[in-house]
Amino acid sequence: MKRKSIHKSRWKLFRNNYDLYLLLIPGLIFLLLFKYAPMYGIIIAFQDFNIFDGFIGSKWVGLGQFAKLIHSDEFYQVFNNTLLISFYKIILLFPVPIIIALFLNEVRRAVFKKTIQTIIFLPHFLSWVIISGLFMNILSPSGGLVNHVIEWLGGTPISFFLDNHFFRSVVVFTAGWKESGWNAIIFIAAIAGIEQEQYEAASIDGAGRIRQMINITLPGILPTIILIFILRLGYLLEAGTEQILTMYNSVVYSSGDVIGTFVYRQGLGQQDYSFSTAVGLFNSVVGLILIVSGNELSKKLIKRSIW
């Protein structure tokens, strides 16, 4: 009887909002065609795929490509680079948008606030090709602004894009320069949702701006911070393929080659489609495990989670 009533209520909900459900159809079709249908190609990871034989004619090797992956010394170097760059980006860059949002919230002059927002949002709209060219000029060992300063201080020019000691730092810095302002948008929106009465009450009680920021603003956006952090964990093995592809070269493979660029070189460069698909599948499975684990850990420790 209870199931029948639930079924009735659901059908009633559908009838009353059928137009909204119809709007879901284009999105569902998009997901099916461009997200789920291509997953059929995962079987390449279990084959010795030949582009001329296709899916059906290619030899089935089971877990052979994954065994090759495990025994590949090059992959371990790539995996290590990916983890290091991702950890650097999380530790150094994740707090930056939060700090930007907190301080922008304290700016009272609307014109000044909008000007700052525009300036820090703009780099997001530049492609990595443009940004790479820009920083290659700025960091150039012959004529670059940074090396001019180093020489003026008595140092010797540094080839930032050809030095394994500096390449990861360049990757992390440029990623922060490009995306930190844009990533602050979601935290700015979360701050806007905090009730102003809380600030008024805190002000009456004698709390200053810093105290209000710590006791009201930060706790108010904590659920958003947790959500973004859990989602970021899912992309731990995505260290910025597009960015690194436009910046690196064979000289800095030992410090800058990540899983995404490795898949690109193996798949398109050497036409080893099966091995590159196996690497990509490994990347996706690890990302899924990380995001589920992060969600469960968040649920247990602070009673907040995505689902």
General description of the model:
The chain crosses the membrane at residues 20-46, 83-104, 116-139, 216-237, 273-294. Its main location: membrane. Keywords: Membrane, Transmembrane, Transmembrane helix, Transport. Residues 79-294 form the ABC transmembrane type-1 domain. InterPro entries: MetI-like, MetI-like_sf. By secondary structure, the protein is an all-alpha fold. It has a single domain (74-302), classed as MetI-like fold, CATH 1.10.3720.10. The chain has 16 helices and two strands. The chain has helices at 2-16, 18-36, 54-57, 64-70, 73-93, 95-105, 110-121, 128-138, 145-152, 167-192, 196-204, 209-234, 241-247, 253-256, 259-269, 273-302; strands at 47-48, 59-60. A two-stranded antiparallel ribbon has the order 1-2. α5 packs across α10 and α6 crosses α10 (167-192). It is flat. The relative contact order is 0.11.
